[in-house]
Amino acid sequence: MELGWLLWGAAVLLLLHVLMGLSPAVNFALRIGFYSFLCLLASALTAPVCLLVNGGRTVKNMRIIRAVVRTFKYFFGLRFEVKGLENFKVEGPAIIVSNHQSILDMMGLMEILPDNCVQVAKKELMYAGTVGLIIYLGGVIFINRKSTTDAKMVMAEVAKSMTADNVKVWVYPEGTRNCTGDLLPFKKGAFHIAVQAQVPVIPVVYSSFTSFYNPKTKLFTSGKIKVEVLPPIETKGLTSDDVSDLTDRCFHTMRETLFRLSGRPSESKKSS
Ligand SMILES: CCCCC/C=C\C/C=C\CCCCCCCC(=O)SCCNC(=O)CCNC(=O)[C@H](O)C(C)(C)COP(=O)(O)OP(=O)(O)OC[C@H]1O[C@@H](n2cnc3c(N)ncnc32)[C@H](O)[C@@H]1OP(=O)(O)O
Ligand SMILES: CCCCCCCC/C=C\CCCCCCCC(=O)OC[C@@H](O)COP(=O)(O)O
């Protein structure tokens, strides 16, 4: 009986191996399917642990989630090369902004996530099965992207509470996934919060995934991701009139860093 199960297991693995070799599209679908399955399964197993250890929705659960998600990279042959972690060591709360390329970003996020840090997420993720449950338990802040008024109200609450609760807040200022090797224009929500709360902005940049992951060409292989945590940008004394400048400054610094980390000539060098 046990030998029978082993043979079936081996046959399934062999079949998957053959299917993945057949076409990039099958390989891509199977790998993304496996990633989603892993997220759903790990969330289902981790949620009771979070509830038992911390009793409910709290940022403390992020430590448990982080430990679990950090193991995922081994399944996909991904390596992270991280620089600048010391820039997270600012006293008290801060806004962290980073580029957002894919659902795979959860691995890069958890690789460097500082303690007491929650993310801002679209509210639809709350309904992503067990993943929604674990995100809820981790204290993630949900916004309704379809209503600017609602989103702004939630962001204003975040600005008020982050200092009292001493949490860092991680925002993806592009507001959506973008796997083109460049940045989308930044939305200003993160920078409004930083100015309202008078807390620093810490930019984080992940190198482009396009050499190993590209949904358009169905590419998904193993690869290395360079990550750089940049020095904090102070906002003390800034007012709402300065938000546009702050956003631009952050955008240009992050774009330069993205191009450098991805081995792509920067715009200024190209034109000279
Ligand atoms: C154990 C196994 C686990 C398995 C799973 C693994 C890990 C999971 C665990 C945890 C991790 C969860 C992480 C989830 C990440 C999910 C990421 C996302 O969902 S990204 C999408 C959501 N995020 C965002 O959209 C953030 C960026 N967007 C913004 O900041 C936007 O500005 C906005 C606040 C949403 C509003 O957007 P909208 O398009 O409606 O409007 P505009 O941006 O055009 O702004 C209009 C206008 O208003 C001004 N504005 C904006 N915000 C504010 C503010 N807070 N206060 C005042 N004014 C504001 C803005 O400047 C514009 O005015 P103007 O044009 O004059 O400048
Ligand atoms: C009973 C309901 C079953 C629901 C099944 C859900 C299946 C999907 C489950 C797991 C997939 C892994 C998700 C990991 C979390 C990824 C977070 C993320 O990266 O969200 C994208 C969001 O930032 C921006 O969204 P858009 O680019 O604007 O779109």
Written account of the structure:
There is one protein chain. Helix content is 49%, strand content 15%. The chain is α/β, with parallel strands linked by helices and 272 residues long. The protein has one domain: Glycerol-3-phosphate (1)-acyltransferase (3-Layer(aba) Sandwich). The chain has a seven-stranded mixed β-sheet, with helices on both faces. Strand 7 and strand 8 form a beta hairpin. Helix 1 crosses helix 2 and helix 3 packs across helix 5. The longest helix is centred in the first third of the chain and has 31 residues. [(2R)-2-oxidanyl-3-phosphonooxy-propyl] (Z)-octadec-9-enoate binds next to helix 2, helix 5 and helix 6.
What's the short story on this structure?
It contains ten helices and nine strands. With 272 residues, it is of the alpha/beta class.
Distance between the termini: 71 Å
Q: What is the residue-mean pLDDT, rounded to a whole number?
A: 95
Q: What is the rounded Rg?
A: 20 Å
Beta-strand percent range? 5-15%
Proper CATH architecture: 3-Layer(aba) Sandwich
Secondary-structure class:
alpha/beta
Which percent range fits the helix content? 40-55%
Bound molecules: ligand LBKI3ST6, [(2R)-2-oxidanyl-3-phosphonooxy-propyl] (Z)-octadec-9-enoate
